[in-house]
Specification:
The complex is a heterodimer of chains A (207) and B (244). Chain A is an all-alpha fold and 207 residues long. In chain A, 78% of the residues lie in helices and 2% in strands. Chain A has eleven helices and two strands; from the N terminus they run E-H-H-H-H-H-H-H-H-H-E-H-H. Chain A has a two-stranded antiparallel ribbon. The longest helix of chain A is centred in the last third of the chain and has 31 residues. Chain A is elongated. With 244 residues, chain B is of the alpha+beta class. In chain B, 23% of the residues lie in helices and 25% in strands. Chain B has a five-stranded mixed β-sheet. In chain B, strands 3, 4, 7, 8 and 9 form a five-stranded antiparallel β-sheet that branches. The N terminus of chain B is likely disordered. The chains are: A mainly alpha (207), B alpha+beta (244).
């Protein structure tokens, strides 16, 4: 097995996932009239929604600021943020060959979309909740962005879960942290080679 | 520091730029979103009005009403069973029936925007009903009365108004919305509509009005959760525009 995600990365992922699902579920009820009519309890749902939103960025911020334990997360985020020509080729479907790094173009695109959408939702959600300093037009504008951002995020989350189901090795690696060597050699050859060399160079010193 | 991808020289920080781009797009959306929304809503009105599936309602451009309900069940009362009690500091406490409100009292129609305090807005909504002051005139309000407490038959929601606010021309005991009877979801059979105030003041499922000589209960449902007691659009809750 090869280590794909360390503990901090996995904890941050699942904490963020739970908060995001909480936001989507409560948001959907608040947004869809038929559901709101059936469920009601608007004050409670709204306060759960707002608290999930307030806490949303906390796991990530804590994770990246952990000195030792946050190293893997910082390095993953860094790699996800830097796009190579190979990533763009991958996205244009010119090639589906194993990418140079740990992530392929699709994973980088998904990360950028998650980051961009969640940031937009946090900003507009905060404006809608702490609305007093803002004119009605801005509140209406924030609601407009928040609504479309919600629909986009909904599609993105479905897509994300769908992709994960289609690659069980990846889904498993987000809970156990490891991928099988065979998967890594097949799908991420350059990364697998680097990781295995690192392992070997470490082993003698530890022994 | 984290290692750069091996492809090195051709790598670009597009992920970071995506975040900055999203912030910029969000800012543009906040400032211009209301105008875009209005155009889209008006342009799509012929479609959304006649969409038999109701699916277009799920899109933000439809300019639909959002259903806000603070209790667990959707309140429902038939027109036959419906009554509106006006009591408290009045000489003649009176129970009005749906028929009184619909047919026996002078009718008023109003077309105004509906504005929620958090931002959603429906343009040009047509309401019909009886001015609240018509009811007040018929119960002989005591000179000592300064406030009204309005109660919903959802069992929880309460709103308050001052006497002067209640006597405005644009405050309706509404029974008709966009030409149809007001449905359960929209607060029917009878609800309040206060044109110059945010939506939370327009109490749904209106059941009782009590006249008092003080602000009842320290304000209404959302006022206890931080909203202004005088919910003028644009002026209260931090706003400063002209009321729509």
């Amino acid at each position: 097995m090869i280590r794909r995600f360390d503990v901090a990365t996995r904890v941050v992922h699942w904490a963020t996932a739970v908060l995001t699902l909480g936001l989507l579920v409560t948001g959907t009820i608040l947004y869809v009239g038929q559901l709101e009519a059936a469920v009601g309890r608007r004050a409670l749902l709204a306060s759960i929604h707002v608290w999930c939103g307030i806490l949303l960025a906390v796991p990530l911020l804590v994770g990246v600021s952990l000195k030792g334990a946050g190293h893997g997360l910082r390095s993953d985020l860094h790699e996800l943020s830097w796009w190579t020509r190979a990533d763009k080729r991958w996205l244009r479907r010119a090639t589906r060959e194993s990418p140079d790094g740990k992530f392929n173009g699709g994973q980088k695109l998904a990360t950028a979309m998650f980051g961009g959408l969640l940031l937009a939702q946090i900003v507009t959600g905060a404006l809608m909740h702490w609305n007093k300093p803002f004119a009605d037009d801005w509140r209406t504008g924030a609601t407009f962005v928040h609504d479309w951002g919600y629909l986009a995020l909904f599609v993105l989350v479905i897509g994300h879960i769908g992709r994960a189901m289609r690659e069980p090795e990846l889904l498993k690696s987000m809970s156990t942290g490891d991928v099988p060597v065979s998967w890594a050699r097949r799908e991420r050859q350059a990364w697998a080679t680097r990781e295995l060399v690192d392992e070997q160079s470490k082993t003698p010193t530890e022994a | 520091m984290a290692s750069e991808p091996d492809a090195g020289s051709d790598a670009r920080p597009l992920g970071r730029r995506a975040l900055l781009g999203s912030l910029a797009a969000t800012a543009v959306g906040i400032v211009f979103g209301a105008r875009i929304q209005e155009r889209l809503q008006r342009a799509l009105l012929p479609i959304t009005l006649h969409d038999p599936t109701g699916l277009s309602d799920l899109l933000p451009v439809a300019g639909r009403f959002r259903i806000y309900s603070v209790t667990g069940d959707l309140p429902s009362r038939s027109k036959e069973a419906y009554t509106l009690r006006v009591e408290g500091l009045v000489a003649r406490p009176t129970t009005f029936t749906y028929d009184d409100i619909r047919n026996r009292l002078p009718q008023t129609a109003l077309t105004r925007d509906f504005q929620c305090v958090t931002g959603w807005r429906v343009y040009d909504v047509a309401w019909a009903g009886v001015q609240l002051r018509e009811l007040l005139d018929r119960v002989d309000v005591d000179a000592s009365a300064t406030h009204l407490k309005l109660t919903s038959f959802d069992g929880t929601y309460v709103e308050t108004l001052t006497i002067d606010q209640a006597r405005r021309d644009d405050v309706l005991i509404a029974h008709t919305l966009e030409g149809s009877d007001i449905s359960d979801e929209h607060g029917g059979p009878v609800r309040l509509y206060i044109a110059p105030m945010y939506g939370y003041k327009s109490i749904k499922w209106l059941e009782r009005i009590e006249l008092a000589d003080h602000l009842p209960d320290g304000g209404g449902y959302w006022e206890h959760r931080g909203y202004d007691i005088d919910g003028w659009t644009g002026r209260s809750n931090g706003g400063h525009e002209d009321p729509t």
